[in-house]
Specification:
Shape: globular
Structural class: alpha+beta
Strand content: 15-25%
Helix content: 40-55%
CATH class: Alpha Beta
Strand order of the largest sheet: 3-2-1-4
Number of helices: 4
CATH topology: Nucleotidyltransferase, domain 5
CATH architecture: 2-Layer Sandwich
Length: 119
């Protein structure tokens, strides 16, 4: 019997393989009950180029409540998009890491798109 985490990672494996074949820079998302984080990973998967998270001091000051809500996800999405654009990255592949494209994951993706990232 697979655990909830193993099932999620099994779903994520196919997406990550497809993105690896494209050799695209990817925007990877991870969420927990209390936090959400996003990372931009190089096309070869060897390096994390930048991250944004609700655990960062600048983001914590903007939050209302904890980091496990849609508002926090929108802040993180805007922040990762701003960092990526500053580094000259405009096109990424969205890696939802097996999480449903719903709620916080969707809010992060839409905020990143609004801030100028293209998926």
């Amino acid at each position: 019997m697979l655990t909830k985490k193993q099932t999620r990672l099994r779903r994520a494996k196919a997406t990550r393989a497809r993105i690896a074949r494209l050799e695209a820079t990817r925007l990877s998302v991870h969420r927990s009950n209390a936090h959400i984080s996003a990372s931009i990973v190089s096309g070869d998967g060897a390096r994390v180029l930048m991250t944004a998270s609700t655990m960062e001091t600048e983001v914590r000051q903007q939050l209302q409540g904890n980091g496990g809500n849609v508002g926090a996800a929108q802040i993180v999405g805007r922040r990762i998009a701003e960092k990526a654009r500053a580094a000259g990255i405009e096109q990424v592949a969205f890696d939802r890491a097996g999480f449903q494209y719903h709620g916080r994951v969707k809010a992060l993706a839409e905020a990143a798109r609004e801030a100028g990232l293209k998926f």
